[in-house]
Amino acid sequence: MDTSGQHSIPNPKINPSRRRSTGLKADGTPDDNDRVEIGPTALAFEEWRALGLELPNIPRLREFRLGRLTAELQRRDLGGILLFDPLNIRYATDTSNMQVWVAHNPARACYVSADGYVILWDFHKCGHLSAHLPLVREVRHGAGFYYFEAGDHSERLAARFAGEVDAALREHAGGNRRLAVDKIEISGLRALEALGVDVVSGQSVTEHVRLVKGAEEIKAMRCAIASCEIAVAEMRRAAQPGVSEAEVWSVLHGENIRRGGEWIETRILASGQRTNPWFQECGPRIIQDGDLIGFDTDLVGPYGMCADISRTWLCGDGQATAEQRRLYRHANDHVMANMALLGPGVGFREITEKGHRLPEEFRPQRYGCMMHGAGLCDEYPAIYYPEDFMDGAFDYTFEPGMVICVEAYIGNVGGGQGVKLEDQVLITEDGIENLTRCPHDERLF
Q: pLDDT digits over 56-88, tens only?
């Protein structure tokens, strides 16, 4: 890989002789068949129009996000933030480049100053991917000093990168040497500190910034959830006796991509005996008539927005057993009772303290949390069960614009089956709105 020369250029615009502008799509992005920018497909736009969904204005969405980030940097008296997490880079810039790959190969970085100056270090020879984004002021490369790319020169390349960051901090933050960093290789952290940069944790910054969604983000999320639910309906049609779990799960992937969705973070779908205990990922098991099939979408859809929905179905045309209905009733009651506690001004701790208590038989295999945030992926906060609560870790309150996933897993130790349910909920000015329209299997009620 070429790691020798670095460059810093103003963000180049697409050469009009090479790329013909044909106006704007309904979401405010270029209506150009050859554009580099990813986004929803014509199928997604058609389905959203049929559903009567209001589309987001993507330029306004981008400005809102950058504004929230810079306001938080100023509030915390930080000279800027250095981002490596691809989801944080996406939030700050709306750039996307091999998101899953760079999640484990940190080849991209982004510096945002407290006054909103954005420098993006992209993967080498990828400057054209952000040419449509005026909020990105400079594009460079050279942020990759992980061992795969840097080998035994990791420290040298990290020192060179740190020098660029230090220069940017001096230019755009004056005497403020406090720099938030979300994630960084050890060699990069040591190189920054050697230059006298006061490195502080950036994860609390980005998680709190991303916590409250703006109007355009909520519109984008409604669209992503709608596309996810259409894909889930196709998956349900495929979930027939004699089909493997992997075949069923592949439908969700394919339908997500058809609509301009981006990836799925897990592969959690299980059937029959594999629904207990939970978290078994889909595999070659052939689904049988009368099996329960449970799944968790964990889906990153159009606009990079998360649609995190769980349902459990009965496979085949028969009727559910009394035990299957009992498990399902407990799961649904748990989700609905906890959802009813949500609202603006409610404390995170309060949900833990007042939340619906699982029957004793289901507590040993309780889910990892009662609720969690959602945005570009599963996000902060995590609302824990009383058994798992950490005093002082989550002393905040729900605000309008937060999106919370409320979930439950019901299955007893040694049981032959289990039920997983999850809905995605918006905190509003005066209550909540369940954003999830995905139907339940009525035979299990």
A: 999 999 999 999 999 999 999 999 999 999 999
Structure token pair of residue 263: 């990836």
Distance CA 331, CA 190 (A): 48
Residues paired with 82 in a beta bridge: 111, 181
**Residue 160, domain CATH:** 3.40.350.10
Q: Between vectors from CA 228 to CA 224 and to CA 229, what angle results, nearest 5°? A: 120
pTM of whole model > 0.90? yes
The answer to whether 342 and 425 are in contact (CB under 8 A) is yes
Strand partners, 118: 112
Determine the Cα–Cα distance for residues 378 and 262; give it in Å rounded to an integer. 15
Evaluate if residue 398 carries a pLDDT over 80.
yes
Find out whether the peptide bond into 364 is cis, omega within 30 degrees of 0.
Answer: no
Does residue 361 sit in the same domain as residue 259?
A: yes
* pLDDT at site 318: 96
**Chain Cα centroid distance, residue 151:** 31
Element (H, E) at 245: helix 245-258
DSSP letter (8 states) at residue 384: -
The number of distinct structural domains making up the chain is 2
Q: Are residues 201 and 249 in the same domain?
A: no
Distance between CA atoms of 119 and 161, rounded to whole angstroms?
A: 12
114 burial (CB, 10 Å; 0-12 / 13-18 / 19+) is buried
Burial class of 126 by CB neighbour count within 10 A (0 to 12, 13 to 18, 19+): middle
Domain limits at 258?
212-444
Cα distance between residue 357 and residue 18, in whole Å:
62
Domain boundary among 210, 238, 260: 210
Q: Please give the pLDDT value at position 270.
A: 98
Q: Within 10 A of 18 (CB to CB), how many other CB atoms are there? A: 7
